[in-house]
Amino acid sequence: MNKIALILSITIACILCTMKIQAQNFLEKKINLEVTNQSTETTMFILEKLGGFNFSYDAMLLDPSKMISIKGKHQSLEEILNELFKGRLTYKVIGSHVILQSKNKSGLSNTMWILSGVITDSDGNPLENAIVYEVNRQASFITNPNGKYLLHLEGNQNSGINFSCKGYKDTIVYVQAGKKQQLNIILKPWQAQSIFKTEPAFAQNLHSRTKAINWAYTNKELQDIGFVNLMVTNKALYISNNLNVKEVRFVQVSFIPSWGTNQLTNGLVTNKLSMNIIAGYSANIEGFEIGSVANIIRQEMNGVQISGVANVVGEDVHGVQASGVVNTNLGNMDGVQLAGVINRVKGDIKGLQMSGAINSAAAKSLDSIPYRGWNGQISGGINLHGGERINLQVGGVYNQANSVDGLQISGAINMVRGTTNGVQISGIYNQTDKLRGIQIGLINFADTIENGFPIGLVNIIKNGYHKWELSTDESFYFNAAYKTGGKNLYSFLRIGAGKYLNAAYGIGCTSNTNRKFSVNLDVSGSSLFNTDSDYDVFAGDLYRAQLGLTIKLNKNITLSTGPSYNFCSPDKEQNQISKINFSSKNTMYFGNYYLDKAVATLKNQYWLGWQFGLRF
């Protein structure tokens, strides 16, 4: 297949998908209607032209002598029809047809009758898997390889029968009730360009919805979920995925998806209230749904959904989802999602996910989804977010996000692929590309620090401040330190050796390191260790604040010197030695006098000191 043919195929597929989406919104479509003294039939024809659809109805429903006048009004089709028929009729959308039906069911009876026949194409070839659907939802049928169908119907009223097959134009026929009837149907191929030639206004109004997932892709994904295939019959899935019907019902009750008030057509109906004894399957929920085991929604859920085991939604969720085990949404989620084990949203989230084990949102298979508001994830185990950014992640073990604009807390590991604009706190490891805030963990890694600093035992900044420093001071003959951080803030690890040993961790700040002269301030806390075997190994804590006045000798070497302030808190539990040998207070390393005094007397000591070192 050459490139032109491929592009043409993709374009036609997109047009077909878009037409399905638009077909479900005819009743909500705004129309500017203005007629003066026109018959009902003419008014209906004008509406068809303005809306880009076809009316289907029993001729007995309309009064041909009635004349209609409507001044210019911009209303939805449903509002216009209510005004025309004074609420006598109900409306249903099937494909490109708007079906008109009487609200008066007095003509119904217990009379049973059968409608059967064969569906073929224009060449007489039988059409397998064509759908025959009675518009009042009494019955539906999928044709066999010979194109044959058989419907069991009830009542004395005329029935509208919809015949549809993928790739062919839908056909609606009204048949008179009878004991047994034979009706053979020929379906004509559907051609995309024919609609644009005859209905240019309709062609201009074909716009896909702003969705993370389009209609056809969503249904394919919904069918691929094993739990859905387990609970919903293949016939119900096939009918709902291949027959475009828009119908709203106030309440439905199901025992299982194929056994309930909506039977095999449950995937075509939007319900206000849905009660599922075990499990249910609907097109949409606009209100409240509860199921002891599972709730499965083909398109959107707006309201509250509660299940004992699983909630599965094919498109967007707006509201609250609560499940004992798992919630799965193949669109976006705006609201609160609660699960005992797993929450999964294929799109992005605006709101909060809470689960006992795993939260997942915005899978990598989707295109980039814009940030839409505050969002957060809280779980006992793992949080995964692949959207643009997230505000809150609290996980017992692991958090992963593209960007964080707020707080990320984990018992073990935090991973951010982009920017952390806030705080990362973990028990073991934090990682981010750009840091604009604080990292607190045993090990912290950042590619770049723009504004902030890491606090941990090991801090690694790939493109930041990296310096080794060798120094001496009044208390320790030799010190070695490694400093790493951002442009102005850094952390460091230091070890010192003298009469005593110490291991220190600290943070510091510096002025512009590119200048010849600069200033830095280091604040550290360290553990002090005895080298004398007469004493316990641990001697106490040493805290130090030192000011460094630096001069850059060349590109790689900087000299630093300055005063310090020291505070030693000895270990009060160590054994005291009766014979005390104090270091001389007047030597160059006079600080040992105060260390000796602190260790021997077990009393806090304060003193001024100094430091001199080389940084490279």
From TrEMBL:
InterPro entries membership: CarboxyPept-like_regulatory
Pfam families with a match to the protein in the record: CarbopepD_reg_2 (PF13715)
Highest taxon of the lineage: Bacteria
Name of this chain's protein: Carboxypeptidase-like regulatory domain-containing protein
Organism (species): Labilibaculum euxinus
